Amino acid sequence: MVLPLGFHSDKPNQVCKLLRSLYGLKQASRQWNAKLTKALQENGYKQSTADPSLFTKASGNSFTALLIYVDDILVAGTSITHINELKHFLDKSFKIKDLGNINYFLGIEEVTTASGLNLSQRKYVLEILKESGFLEAKPAQTPATTGLQLTHSEGSLLEKPEIYRRLIGKLLYLTNTRPDISHIVQQLSQFVDKPTSTHLTAAHRVLRYLKGSPGKGIFYHSNSQFKLYGFSDSDWANCPESRKSVTGYCIYLGNNLISWRTKKQATVSKSSSEAEYRALASTVCEVQWLHYLLADLGIRLGMPASLFCDNQAAIATGENHVFHERTKHIEIDCHIVKQKVNERLIKLLPIPSQKQVADGFTKALPHPAFAIFQSKLGLHDLLSFHHFDLSKLQTRS
């Protein structure tokens, strides 16, 4: 607490009257972040350039990393001694509460076994189902009907649109551990301004799908290789109203899915090849960012990231240095693909459409294809005896 700038008084022992709680001020979070960042940097921690909420410190053979969300801090490291020193420093500086080994963080449940780490949001899913009245609903096999295309004109406007908006907001947060619903949630989120009964019915279908497997989450293998590769795809002119395409990609580190996205493209593409090339550009930017992030974590990848695309024309555009008439209308930023191919950051490889993992991020799939898509994402159910021996479950940092 400091006196306001420009305040002058000749009277001694004056105090400021607190008119509002510090938590009620807009600049409170920024001031707290600046204070915490300064304290960590003075203690030898380096702030990541790729993710400002990540702080790392390498000392000899030990490595410690902090991930910060406002005033919640997640600590991981190779030396328990250095972790204890950090906790003592933070407690001395800010009076922290040590919650011990991680098992629940920001609504995400964490369970470790000898084979790896599982992240899920089972409690969060059950809360959504209970609030929406779908705890006893009949489960659905897929989150969306095949070939689903939503528009603003279908159905009647909802009398209470805030119910739809609240539900979509919760489903958006759920995609942190459920990439299998990313596409349909992206589609539904386009109609939060004026939702209709048709949109609400489609959202209820997602709830019925979640009812069948509330405990599913992403499983990360502990013995995975440090090899980066990804899949890029697009659905040309997917939107029936704007005719814009949808970009979908997923990126793996070894066998572990670490990044994915479903997003409508900003401009209309004249061909499917152009739409695929724009999707490649988005994927390349993500790969570049992951390289920066891994470097901050002390991981250097010795080979280019393999990027699989099922469109030969898009691959040829990315590798061909000749300027063609049919590609001159494409924005300059899309040609980052060519630059990164030349820099050997990525290597473009063809893949059959039947084996394109990112296909499920661009369209609603039928049940057989969706089951294959889901299996390739590495989703496991904590309550399934096919993946875990429940007697051996344990939590640790």
What's the SSE blueprint?
Layout: H1 28-42, E1 46-47, E2 54-59, E3 62-69, E4 72-77, H2 80-94, E5 104-105, E6 108-112, E7 116-120, H3 122-132, H4 161-174, H5 182-188, H6 197-212, E8 216-221, E9 228-235, E10 246-253, E11 256-264, H7 272-296, E12 305-309, H8 312-319, H9 336-342, E13 346-350, H10 367-376, E14 379-381
Parallel strand pairs: 9-12, 12-13
Antiparallel strand pairs: 1-2, 2-3, 3-4, 5-6, 6-7, 7-8, 8-14, 9-10, 10-11
Helix pairs in contact: 7-8
Notes on the protein architecture:
The chain has 397 residues and is of the alpha+beta class. The chain has three domains: 22-100, 2-Layer Sandwich (TATA-Binding Protein); 119-215, no CATH class; 224-371, 2-Layer Sandwich (Nucleotidyltransferase, domain 5). It is 32% helix and 20% strand. It has ten helices and 14 strands. The strands form three sheets. Strands 5-6-7-8-14 form a five-stranded antiparallel β-sheet. A five-stranded mixed β-sheet has the order 11-10-9-12-13. The longest helix is centred in the last third of the chain and has 25 residues, at 272-296. The protein is globular. The two termini are 35 Å apart.
Number of domain units: 3
What letter string, H or E per element, gives the SSE order? Answer: HEEEEHEEEHHHHEEEEHEHHEHE
Briefly note the structural class of the backbone.
Answer: alpha+beta
Which descriptor suits the 3D outline? Answer: globular
Strand order of the largest sheet: 5-6-7-8-14
How far apart are the termini?
35 Å
Radius of gyration, taken over Cα atoms and rounded to an integer in Å: 24 Å
Give me the count of strands: 14
Q: What's the rounded overall pLDDT mean?
A: 88
Oligomer: single chain
Strand content: 15-25%
Q: What is the architecture of the largest domain at the second tier of CATH? A: 2-Layer Sandwich
